[in-house]
Amino acid sequence: MRGVFRVLATIVNLSLIIALLVLVSKLNYDTIPTRDVQSILATWGSRGVQGSPTSVQAKRSADFNSAGIEPIPCHSHNDYERQTPLYDALNIGCTSIEADIWLQGDNLLIGHTESSLDQWRTLKSLYLDPLTCVIGDRNPDLDLNDGEDHSGSLKGVFTANATISLILLVDIKTDSATTLPVLMKRLFPLRKRGFLTHSDGSRTIQGPITVVATGDTDFDAIYNAKDRFVFFDAPLDHQWREDSRTEAKLYNKDTSYYASVSFERAIGKPSFRGDLSDEQIQKIKEQVQGAHTRGSKVRYWDTPGGPVGERIWKQLWKEGVDVLNVDDLKKAKDFLGKKS
Predict the structure, then answer these.
(1) Residue 69's Cα: distance from chain center in Å?
(2) pTM of this prediction?
(3) Which of 116-135 are b and which e, b meaning 16 or more Cβ less than 10 Å from the residue's Cβ?
(4) In this structure, are strands 324-326 and 72-76 parallel, antiparallel, or unpaired?
(5) Do the Cβ atoms of 139 and 146 come closer than 8 Å?
(6) Contact at 8 Å (CB) between 111 and 100?
(7) Closest Cα to residue 78, out of 62, 64, 94?
């Protein structure tokens, strides 16, 4: 009888050991991968045991290394369609990224439509925390937790050109009066460390990140800010020589980083082959000149896709457009890589 109990005890002990090993393997999710952007891309979508968006993502951000990545002047659009929007864009070298935000309670959720929102996909978890860690990793000689403002002394995201400021275009999908203050609150810890480009009205100091608000954004709230660390995406079709409205005169390098507009709405459709009329090209020239005179960077969105889209890119690039709005990141890298 004692022999039977010994056998049962042995079986129970083995079962406990196996269960413990399984548990340990499951807890291993917090392991930090090597400095390989592909490792980050492969693991970004997982969630921690509490269901929150990966408690380790901010740590994994510090493993991102932009060495070997050439920055290119493209704006990563439709980020919501990608599993890892931030790192997909950085891996290509995009110097401008986009986040669509919706205010729900005190949270800024990420998604193109309200039906696509997930409480774990927030501006803080998907963009601000990872970028904070990336910039911290790029500036190891500075104590970024010392409470000091390190404005003007921080290296940017890209190793190949540390002076480039990464543009974070925040598309406000909910009421600006309630959403913009929450956005400012979320951004303030980065501003306090000197991570954000900011202006006091008389001068603008560049930081590793420049935040630009578009969508349902109240220009007056940005214009009247004494410490401006969110800039405006001005309407490009109000920038050219024929526009004399009062507000258009307020769009300048200290208030409006970008000047953007829908290509189809402002310029019209190209021909079947992707050609533009002389009148359309002249309108682009004048809008670009108007924005550049005011100190804003030019971006057209809603440009055609496919082969026609690449012909439009060539024309826009020729006329001095500063950043190309892209959905196909690889195609953008191939196109802009030839131009650099």
Answers:
(1) 17
(2) 0.81
(3) ebeebbbbbbbbbbbbbbbb
(4) parallel
(5) no
(6) yes
(7) 94
Q: Beta strands 204-205 and 209-215: pairing type?
A: unpaired
- CA-based nearest residue to 118, from 185, 53, 58, 44: 53
Amino acid at 125: S
**Tens-digit pLDDT profile for residues 102-111:** 999 999 999 8
| Residue 279 phi, psi (nearest 5) | -65, -40
Helix axis angle, 129-138 to 176-193, nearest 10°: 20
Nearest to 55 by CA among 31, 90, 38: 31
Residue 315 has φ and ψ, to the nearest 5°, of: -70, -45
Measured between alpha carbons, how far is 59 from 134 in angstroms, rounded to an integer? 9
Of the chain, the percentage scoring pLDDT greater than 70 comes to 76
Contacts of 83 (CB under 8 A, 6+ apart): 41, 44, 45
Quick one: how far is CA 220 from the chain centroid?
24
Whose CA is closest to 216, among 232, 198, 240, 229?
A: 232
b or e along 192-216 (b: 16 or more beta carbons within 10 Å of the residue's beta carbon)? ebbbbbbbeeeebebbbbbbbbbee
Residue position matching structure tokens 């949270």: 107
Give 156-175 pLDDT, tens digit per residue.
999 999 999 999 999 999 99
Quick check: helix, strand or coil at residue 322? coil
- Produce one character per residue of 136-174: b if its CB has 16 or more CB atoms within 10 Å, e if not: bbbbeebebeeeeebbeebbbbbeeeeebbbbbbbbbbb
Q: Which amino acid is at 231?
A: F
